[in-house]
Amino acid sequence: MLFSPYDYDVHEDPYPIYRRLRDEFPLYRNHEVGFWALSRYADVLDAFKRPDVFSNAKGVSLERSSQADASAVCSFLALDPPRHDQIRAIVSKAFTPRRVAELEPSIRALARGYIENVRAAGRCDFIADFAAKLPMDVISEMLGVPAADRDTLRLLADTVVHREEGVSEIPAAGIEASGKLLVYFSELVKERSLRRGEDLPSALLDAEIEGERLGPREVMAFLFLMIIAGNETTTKLLGNAVYWRWRNPAEAAKVEADPAMIPAWIEETLRYDNSTQMLARTVLSNTDYLGERLHEGDKVLLLIGSANRDESVFARADEYDISRDTAQHISFGKGTHFCLGASLARLEARVALEEVEALLGPLDLDESGFVRVHSPNVRGFSAMPVRFPSSPR
User: Fold this and answer.
1) Of 62, 83, 158, 322, which residue has the fewest beta carbons closer than 10 angstroms?
2) Domain at 91, CATH number
């Protein structure tokens, strides 16, 4: 087997395999696990833009959802137009540029608070003490999740994305964690149904589509999606950014010399080692594609991580260069399902890294303590010990 997203060696470094897929097997078939994979930039981009062929309706993971209907946990991410467009239009009101920009002061205060908690010690686990807490706080504030519940929800979210090596089914612990999250958000929606608050669940319960309000199940599904997608991916983006800065001293020097390079640092990390490596689609009808016959119901993986390393689009694609033009990366997808939270993720990452640079300076990473996430979709670290000067900058 050349490529399986459940192989722990692939999780350590998928990029040599991606290169071979692009060069030799641009439409790769894994008969054992049962999927196709697109690896070239042009093909992944094309599939993103063709929901009439490559559908989201069965979810965006390779595995079958733990729910009979994938939209029960993926919300509009597991829907095709027109229903997708209707729900997205409602929830997007919380992610307009103005509303996202208004969050910056509170995000900055949260980031500074977590840094002050660890600065005197001169060391911390960058993931557990900072990168995992900040996105969870931001999303939780939007969703109305009390501070006392956030660590528990984050651990459940981590468990949902974890996969066992070589096993192509959702582990029992992941199914159990999904169930607990659904119960939690079911209770939250029930509470908001009786007493509205100043949060997103309350706004969604009051929203209407063609004169009809969203049902509690649809609101609950969106909350589930947000606690996974709005938390896990940004956490891993922050860890990946710090890691690759540390591995590339010449690039680190650019940031140290000019903090205005931080957004470019973020964008190159998104291109070079994105936290979302792949998304699944389901073929809607028998289709000839790249010389192969795809059949209705076939799963197709869109390898975002591979597309962003395609040399036909990005010169010296395997080099980490924060000065490069990254405008064409597709880390947030394209087309109908372009990531709704892209602007929020960018804001969180920029503010977080600005505060790390200003208050801590260059981090010295302890590679012996790294723990990598094991997930087909999500790439990053669950533990990253770091050291830094304990005296204030």
Assistant:
1) 83
2) 1.10.630.10
